[in-house]
Write a structure and sequence with these properties.
- By secondary structure, the chain is an alpha/beta fold.
- The protein is built from 12 helices and 15 strands.
- Bound molecules: pyridoxal-5'-phosphate.
- The site of pyridoxal-5'-phosphate (PLP) has 14 residues, from helix 3 and helix 4.
């Protein structure tokens, strides 16, 4: 029997049986490639991909041609940096603004663009004393990266207000939203956000690994960053090509079809049952009583993140792990916010729809046994 209590949903969600069944059924009974065949099976797969894309579009209030399947959030965020900086009208004198809330995957691509001379400056906007985005610090910038919810602190940021102010300062600003944690807990409305690009990973909402979403508002306008099968409608006599329309022009190569099939079911499941954040509040109230535990998140957060006085986070992780509890320790690929908090790392508890009060009680008792 698997006795593990899994409190690491924010790293990757456990997969509901319905997703495993849908993927198994697809692989066993319905598998074919998409976008290439004319037999009944191939067209049925095309229909499945279209339906899944439609589901994602509805899920975030986008149009179907704005939804691009990518490998994960990291892939989307790297591609966006490449897409923007390779546009013919783009100037490498552009300035990109980031904050200390960013995951490595959201900020490193822009540090790399700076190194390559594809942007002229990387500037930082501020966080307030609770480490939320200080909206009035949003600068005039050409490119703005916004983390809708930090994977360390778990508080939803007011993306619409941030974008509004950025557009007041520069109507042509290109806004990129990392919604990888936000999407787990909150509904997304890309119209209300008024963002240019939004990304998230499927595996953090119950889908398989290998599938992510890149929303592109002006999906027809930009020139693609990847080339190959499926994204051109015709190679012309002079050796050049005519591109497909969006979304196909963004999807060179065979799609992760099995994962797309599962993603559709994952969205249904997530909409039926989001993680129960009352469990976070319960564990917060209990762990707060332990004088050696310093909680870094607020009671209202989607995550419970803390450090233990006198114990390295890796030692803590190993000890709770030996007692059957899975949680995340370390810098969580979010070094900048840890630097701001003057910490090397922290301990993060995150919940999925499978977690129960019994799980929470087990965690509390194991932690209190280890941290006396
Ligand atoms: C806020 C945030 N952004 C981006 C990522 C990167 O996601 P992935 O590893 O699925 O590409 C993560 C993963 O932890 C995240 O929490």
């Amino acid at each position: 029997m698997n006795e593990i209590v899994y409190f690491d949903a924010a790293a990757s969600f456990l997969k509901p049986g319905s997703i495993i069944d849908a993927q198994g059924d697809f692989l066993r009974n319905n598998y074919a490639n998409s976008g290439r065949g004319v037999c009944a099976r191939a067209t049925a797969v095309d229909d499945m991909v279209k339906a899944a894309r439609g589901k994602v579009a509805q899920f975030i209030n986008a149009d179907i041609d704005q939804i691009v399947f990518v490998s994960n959030a990291t892939d989307g965020l790297n591609r966006i940096a490449n897409i923007i900086t390779r546009q013919p009208e783009y100037k490498n004198t552009s300035v990109c603004a980031v904050s200390d809330l960013e995951h490595h995957s959201a900020r490193m691509p822009w540090q790399e663009m700076l190194k390559l001379g594809k942007i002229s400056k990387l500037i930082k906007y501020d966080l307030d004393k609770d480490f939320n985005i200080k909206i009035d610090s949003i600068p005039e910038t050409d490119i703005l990266v916004v983390t809708a919810m930090s994977n360390v602190l778990g508080i939803p940021q007011d993306v619409s207000a941030i974008v509004r102010l950025a557009r007041e300062k520069n109507p042509n600003v290109i806004v990129i939203v990392d919604a990888t944690q936000y999407v787990v807990h909150k509904d997304i409305d890309v119209h209300a956000w008024d963002a240019d690009f939004v990304v998230f990973s499927g595996h953090k909402i119950g889908a398989d690994t290998g599938i992510g979403i890149m929303y592109i508002r002006d999906s027809q306008k930009y020139y693609p960053d990847k080339f190959g099968g499926g994204m051109v409608s015709r190679i012309t006599d002079d050796g050049s090509w005519i591109l497909q329309n969006a979304p196909e022009k963004w999807e060179a190569g065979t799609l992760p079809l099995t994962q797309i099939c599962g993603l559709s079911v994952a969205i249904d499941e997530l909409q039926k049952s989001r993680p129960d954040l009352d469990l976070i509040k319960y564990m917060y109230d209990e762990l707060k009583k332990n004088p050696r535990i310093k909680i870094l998140t607020s009671r209202e957060s989607a995550l419970l993140t803390f450090v233990v006085d006198g114990m390295h986070v890796l030692d803590f992780g190993a000890l709770v792990g030996a007692n059957g509890i899975c949680l995340r320790v370390g810098n969580m690929c979010a070094s900048w916010i840890h630097n701001v908090m003057k910490l090397d790392g922290s301990i993060r508890v995150s919940v999925g729809p499978w977690n129960t009060k019994d799980d929470a009680n087990k965690l509390i008792s194991v932690v209190n046994k280890i941290v006396k």
